[in-house]
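Researcher: We plan to redesign the surface later, but first we want a full-length starting point. Tokens attached.
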């Protein structure tokens, strides 16, 4: 009783100290301490408190089975990358992880080496290949690589085009030497969705919504930690200001331009194309 600004935090903490779940007490306790500390630090006004409630309400209302505005909020505030960082402290030599993003879809087709995943997507043809090994350099045969990306012109994922075909995504399996290879279109930079409260917040904060061009991968092999990462296109103008803070130097790669001619898959192209090579190294589980 009679709680004031000096005693209220301890009172809330005491009331959940004995819930029987030590982790829940720890997590909720820290959340309450930080929330109360935040309010004391900025001396939150009642109007600001109400604006925050309205913002969070609108964020929830924007969510459906295809759109997750809370994850977008987490992404744009650097929370997703911080959760990723504290959960994936990989040993030296292992490929670094980055944000998962909202555009992965279960059930993409399993395709053979050098299959073309681009479908009807516009863009410069691009041939990506490389290996999957463990940290000792041993090739990992039978690793699954899920790949997904935007098209190469508008920067849209297939799920952002109502009624459009599933494309620019597939699952590959590495061969006996741990190799993978596929044809796609070179991705371009694109804005995260801005037609919701998170977009409004970015605008108010003077921030742009763009992500630098990248290809998503998720790689799994028994005995190894599943790796969720991207390969970024070197030279992209948004590398240093990614809206979701996902860029790491080790993931930025040269996409080499080639004139029309023989492509790495053995086909002959009448137009220029690009190639990119990336060797993924999985940490132990
Ligand atoms: C993405 O890379 O697909 C992505 C990540 C975070 C927010 C929006 C998009
Ligand atoms: Fe993406």
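Model: Full-length starting sequence:
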């Amino acid at each position: 009783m009679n709680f004031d600004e000096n005693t209220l935090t301890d009172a809330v903490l005491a009331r959940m100290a004995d819930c029987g779940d030590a982790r829940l007490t720890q997590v909720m306790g820290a959340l309450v301490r930080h929330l109360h500390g935040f309010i004391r630090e900025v001396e939150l006004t009642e109007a600001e408190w109400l604006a925050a409630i309205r913002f969070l309400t609108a964020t929830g209302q924007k969510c459906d089975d295809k759109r997750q505005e809370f994850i977008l909020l987490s992404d744009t505030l650097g929370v997703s990358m911080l959760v990723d960082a504290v959960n994936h402290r990989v040993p030296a030599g292992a490929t670094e992880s980055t944000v998962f993003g909202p555009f992965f879809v279960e059930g993409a087709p399993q395709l053979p080496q050098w299959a073309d995943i681009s479908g009807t997507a516009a863009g410069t043809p691009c041939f990506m290949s490389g290996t999957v090994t463990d940290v000792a350099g041993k090739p990992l045969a039978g690793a699954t690589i899920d790949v997904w990306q935007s098209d190469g012109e508008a920067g849209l994922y297939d799920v952002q085009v109502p009624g459009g075909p599933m494309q620019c995504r597939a699952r590959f399996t590495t061969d006996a030497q741990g190799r993978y290879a596929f044809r796609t279109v070179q991705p371009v930079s694109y804005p995260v969705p801005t037609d919701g409260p998170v977009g409004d917040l970015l605008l108010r904060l003077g921030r742009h919504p763009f992500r630098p061009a990248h290809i998503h991968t998720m790689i799994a092999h028994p005995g190894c930690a599943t790796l969720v990462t991207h390969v970024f296109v070197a030279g992209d103008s948004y590398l240093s200001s990614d809206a979701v803070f996902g860029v790491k130097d080790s993931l930025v790669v040269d996409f080499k331009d080639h004139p029309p001619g023989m492509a790495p898959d053995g086909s002959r192209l009448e137009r220029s194309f690009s190639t990119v090579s990336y060797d993924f190294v999985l940490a132990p589980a």
